[in-house]
Amino acid sequence: MNCFIGIDLGSTTSKAIFMNEQEKFLGRGITNSRSNYHLACQIAREEAENNSRFSLLEQMIRANPRCKKIVASLMPWLFSRYRLSEYNAQLRALRDICATDLNAWKDPVSVSLYREVVEKILRQMAEEAVLFFQSGASSKSDFFRDIATSQFMDHAQDQIREHNGKITFDRLIGIFDRAIIRVESISFARAFSENIDFAYRKVSRLPEFLDFKDDIYQAVKYADEQEFNIVNIVGTGYGRQRLPFDKKQLRSEILCHGLGAHYMFPKTRTVLDIGGQDTKAIQIDANGIVENFQMNDRCAAGCGRYLGYVADEMNMGVHELGPQALKATKMVRINSTCTVFAGAELRQRLALGEKREDILAGLHRAIILRAMSLLARSGGINNEFTFTGGVAKNQAATGALKKLVLENYGNIKINVSPDSIYTGACGAALFAGNSK
Amino acid sequence: MEVRKEKSMTLQKDMFANHFKRLSRAGEEGRKVVYTFVPGNLNELIRSFDMLPVHPEINALQSAMRKKSANYIREAEKHGHSEDVCTYVKCDVGMMKTGNIGPTGEKLPDPDLLLLSYTGCFTFMKWFEILRQEYNNPPTVMLQVPYQSDGKITPEMTNYVADQLRDVVVPAMEKVSGTEFDAEKLRTFLASSARAEDDLVAILASAKNKPSPIDAYFGGVYYIGPIFTAFRGFDSCEEYYRVLRAEIEERVNNGQGPITPEGQMSEEKYRLVVEGPPNWTSFREFWKMFYDESAVIVASSYTKVGGIYDNGFRHDPARPFESLADYCLGCYTNLNLPSRIDLLEKYIKDYDADGFLINSIKSCNSFSAGQLLILRELEDRTGKAGGFIESDLVDPRYFSPANIKNRLESYFQMIDAKRRTVRNA
User: What percent of chain B is modeled with pLDDT above 70?
Assistant: First the structure.
């Protein structure tokens, strides 16, 4: 199968999109960028390839008239078991690395105690994972790091209490931190076969799917054996210069976000992209070609990393900020011109007794206020308006944006795709396909 | 690539070296020194009294190119100048506070006269107030040049400035220099200026060729050096422009592109018009971001701050004071926003540019205001791609290469995409 790949190496995450010759999404992949863009590119690409196979599998099932009745319930089951298998493989890798690290310790008494504790925590994490990845379970972060960290932290607290001061939180977290970075750097190439095999074995045993065992197997086999012929790859994002690509295969993320937004919502004329370290206000024409853009300069307050900093300050995961802010009953005004000052202001507000959710609501508004100023500088907001980038996944941010757009520009159609984080990679894949 | 040293480059280098040498000896030789700014400078008049000019903003930009501005700015901030103050001012003040050693390593003399030709930048006035205070109250003259608020120079405006030249500036210069005004000498200088100006116009207009033989911004700032500063009116200046023009005409005949620090550009992919000064602290790095992408600047407003000559204006020995007045009134810095837009629009069209770019200077309040409006208006009028980047004149802290490069790359790709749409339409 011929396909085109777009890769977006952002400051926080790296994304990859597989697209077929008809400019349809085949699959998407995402990973934390860290410092190694080369590896991030490889991992995102492999994930996108695995995801493409999963899409092909789904297409095959859908195309089979016998499976018409089960497809709606089957796919979430397959996907959740698939993700569980993926997660377990990563947990195993985490366990092995922790064990190796602990073997290098010089103090035998601590080694045996910490080994026992770490293994116990990892065992508990694996048991819980079965519940996390149930069909229909509420969606978790896309990243192994987010889920695993939150699990590890919870159990670590319990263990410290249980061992009554014999182990320290810092040492325990230190073991985990050092190991997880390396797990994130492991390539799980060709993991599709293994994971889908696991998923197939689990799901085909369920009573409602027993009669369709062979149909499912055929689809799994088809997806697993599919060969992808990569016709062209285009890279974008801050890490694009590090890609071993020809210059013709590199595009600025501004053009990619413009074209990607146009692809997702063809009537788009203004795009706002809030990424990890920059915010872009982009005006595009009817073909998705950039006419004008403005970016934040010198200061990245108000970008995704600002939320990351705030999450750290509040001891929360960054994906938990939005839901928490949505619980607000009032808006606490927060400075938006400096991330570090905003952190100071946040602590002060907490000390004054303001509620976390109200402060968070104010922080989200502050971010969007900064974006509004960039939008104004780029020529305002024209109908339709598409919000892209990682922060568009945050509902408190989109809520604040909708409110401010209505107040300042009136009735404008605002688009946010569930795939918003892939907009840049999508634009890159389109450039790869038609070299527009 | 082979780096060629053209004869004009050597000539210019020698001219500036001699000038700074003369300045360093001014005290012992008893020559008087006038501090004045580039826009609206009255070089012919100053030199007719055998006085030597010092241009504080040229010192600032040369300090920046020699990587000295960061320390000078820090020094000025130590003396209480805020972070937001124009960095030309702070660099100049810092240089003065640390011994006033000029770009060639020789000490600059103190001013015998402060001559403020007030052409549009309101910081100039504050700058001269500081200089007056720092140099212990030397004689100071302010030439009031009316702003071109209606976009044109009226006879009343010309007369108003010419009268000040006759009644205020000349008497002050006579007093400081101890020399009587010599009208004939002034006329001789003005006639020479006009001849060099003819050549300058031809040099800048050569960028209408494809490929352009010059970069009218990064190369242009060198080309305007002599005529914008201490040399206008002199034989050496005339010779410089004659030689430079011949060199460039040869490049046109050979179909050659501009010379960059890494040799001759082989391809011309983008033709741009630029508004705003370049960044001086990372001048080479900034330029490289353009020539690496085969982008050539075919016209720029910055090379007009010391005089716009391509609209026909020339210094005129037949009307010495009036033409000096018109010169001051017509500098780019003295134009209102609509006139700046008209001029840029004309350049975009006349030079067949693919787009225009604004390098907005954070610490320049006078000229950065209104630049977004200029951008929108030019986009509407020309349909060409507009780009916007931000940096600073001489403060290295405000040049962020990764951001600027990223924006420029996006901008060039935006032009590509626009071209493809036009081709496919």
Answer: 99
